[in-house]
Amino acid sequence: MPNLPMAVIRRLFSYERSRNGQQVPNTINGSLYQYACWNWVLSGGTLTADDFKSNSSIIANVLNTDAMGYPLGIKQDAAQQYPQEGNAVDLQRMAALLRDATMEGPELEQDCAPQTEFLECLVRIMLRVNGLEPIPFDADSRYNVIVRSKNWWNTDHWALRLYLGPAAKQQIQTVPDWPLMFSCSKVWDEDLAFVAVTIAGLHQNQVDQLATVPYSTCRGWVMRTKKEGGSFPFVCQAPIRSGSGQCGRCGFVACEAHLGSYDEAGVFHWGMQDDGHYKCQRCGEGIVHVLALE
Question: Which domain of life is it from (predicted)?
C-alpha cells in the first residue's frame, strides 16, 4: 500500500500543532469538501453517501435494525456483500458481542469492552471494503484511524492520525463544507468516546493530497533588542531551505540563523552537541538535523 515519503512527513510535522490545525491546499471543493471526515479516511474523497462502500451504506447492509435504528442482529448475507478477507471473522465477532453491548445501553462508553470491540470490528470492515488494510498496532505503526461516535454501532467523526511516537503525532481531518486540516493536536468531537484501528498504508490520492503541503517557515525564537521595541521573543518565520534544520523528535524547524537554543535567561546558544548536531530549542530533547532540500 502507498506510504507517505519521509520528505512529506517532515513537511507535515514542520508546523506548530493546534486543535484546528493547518489547511491542506486545494481541498475546498468536491466530494471530500461535501462529505468530509469518513470520506477522507476511507477513500481520500472519492465516495458519496449513496456509494455501496460509504460508512452509512455498510452499516445499512450489515446490521438488522429496528425502526429507531437500534441494532437487532447481523444480516445473513453481510459476508457475501462484503467478502474481503477478515470481514467474516469480524461479523461473527460482532454477532457474539451484540447482546452484551446492548445491555450497556445505546451510547458508546469508552470503558465498555463489548461496545468498543463491536465498533472496532465494524470500522475494520469499512476499511477493508475501501481497500485499506487493518493491522495490529506496534511501535513502528504510522497510521491510526480514530473514530468517535455517540453510539457503538455507528460513526460520527473520523480522523487519520499520523504517529511517529508520543511526542510526534498529529491528526488529519475535516468536517462538511470545511477544508482538510493537518497538524491537528486533537481529534475533534472531544466529548465523544472513540476507537482506534491501525492501518498498513494509505490510498495514493491521500498521499498526493498531503504531498502538496509545503514546509513551514522558521519557528526559531528571536530576542528583540530594546531598540527594536523591547527585549521579548518573537518567531523568526524565515523560509526553510537547504541548510535549515528540523528536530527529529518533535518536527520543529529553524533557519540557518537559529540552529541552536535559548537558555532560561533568554541567551541564545548554538547548542552544538558532541556529535555535531544541534539540540532542539522547542522540545529541548531532540536532535536538529540539517536539511538538504531539492
Answer: Bacteria
Shortest CA distance to 270 belongs to which of 201, 220, 211? 220
Domain ranges within the chain, ordered by starting residue? 6-210, 221-290
DSSP-derived letter for residue 227 is G
Grid coordinates representing 206 are 491521500
CA-CA-CA-CA torsion for 16, 36, 69, 117, nearest 10 degrees?
-40
How many CA atoms lie less than 13 Å away from 114 in the CB half-sphere? 13
Beta bridge partners of 182: 22
Q: Which residue has the cell 492501518?
A: 199
Alpha carbon distance 87, 91 (integer Å): 6
Q: How far apart are alpha carbons 251 and 151 in whole angstroms?
A: 36
Which residues of the chain fall short of a pLDDT of 70?
221-233, 260-277, 294
Quote the cell numbers at residue 215: 514546509
CA distance linking residue 240 with residue 258, whole number of Å = 11
Terminal Cα-to-Cα distance of the chain (whole angstroms): 26
What is residue 164's predicted lDDT score, i.e. its pLDDT? 84
- 157 CB neighbour count, 10 Å cutoff: 22
Tell me the C-alpha distance between 178 and 18, whole Å.
17
pLDDT digits (tens, 9 = 90+) for 5-56: 999 999 999 998 999 999 999 998 888 878 889 999 999 999 999 999 999 9
| Number of neighbours of residue 55 by Cβ within 10 angstroms | 26
Handedness of CA 270, 274, 278, 284 (dihedral sign): negative
pLDDT digits (tens, 9 = 90+) for 248-268: 888 889 888 777 655 556 555
